[in-house]
Design a protein that fits this description.
By secondary structure, the chain is mainly alpha-helical. The protein contains 3 helices and 2 strands. It is extended and about 40 Å long.
Length: about 80
């Protein structure tokens, strides 16, 4: 599992290592960590194609290539021509 802090740092490091992560301590604390139960996936012989860091990198790369398709007032639907 990964903490929210670790996840934020991984994303920051993939985008720009000079970005500061600012924690708003005036807000209520959420879960410090979340773990997914993957036992059922293992029983189906499912294997991840990416580890978390590579999956985040692939997602960011995809977004940067496709961000022109996004409009603030329009929901993106990958199955529709935008």
């Amino acid at each position: 599992g990964y903490s929210i802090k670790e996840l934020a740092q991984i994303i920051r490091n993939k985008i720009d290592k000079n970005i500061d992560i600012i924690w708003d301590k005036s807000k209520p604390n959420g879960d410090k960590i979340r773990l997914m139960d993957t036992k059922s996936y293992k029983n189906l012989n499912f294997e991840n194609k990416f580890d978390l860091e590579n999956g985040i990198r692939e997602t960011i790369d995809w977004y940067l290539l496709n961000k022109k398709n996004f409009n603030k007032n329009q929901r993106y639907d990958p199955f529709m021509d935008n």
